[in-house]
Amino acid sequence: MMKLFRYLYYRLYSWNLKTWGENDLPQWNALFGVSFMMFLNLGLLGLLLQPFGLSLFMRNELPKKELVIVMISLFAVNYFLFIHKDNYKSIIKELKKESKEKRRTNTFFLWLYFILSFALFAFGAILLGKLNR
Fold it and tell me: How far is it, in rounded angstroms, from Cα 59 to Cα 86?
């Protein structure tokens, strides 16, 4: 799974750098993007566990403090994985070498991951909302 997030970071970084340049701090924008996707995936996991009486951090009321703590924690962990000591530079250097065919395949799987993450979260939230009525 970490390979997916490294690749997502690389693609977000590259896109941001190409679109807005170094002044837009692409390393930080990519960090926000990866952290958001991880948070969305944790939210989906929380939604999936709820019907079984298990709770990751979701309850009937959204616990705002817990959600903020989880998001900040993800952001902090990702900071150390991607930005601290310029780790992102080695990721970019490593993944920049991919072939066109590999890039096309990886792009397909990245879009599939992105679309499924949002769609499953939305579907889970709607379904859970109907079950809780």
Answer: 38
Which residues 6+ apart lie within 8 Å of 125 measured at CB? Answer: 47
5-21 pLDDT, tens digit per residue, is 999 999 999 999 999 99
Going along 1-133, which residue ranges are E strands? none
pTM for this model (two decimals): 0.86
Cα(82)–Cα(31) distance, integer angstroms: 7
CA angle 128–129–133, rounded 5-degree value:
115
Helix, strand and coil percent figures for the chain, each rounded to 5: 85, 0, 15
CA distance 32 to 76: 11
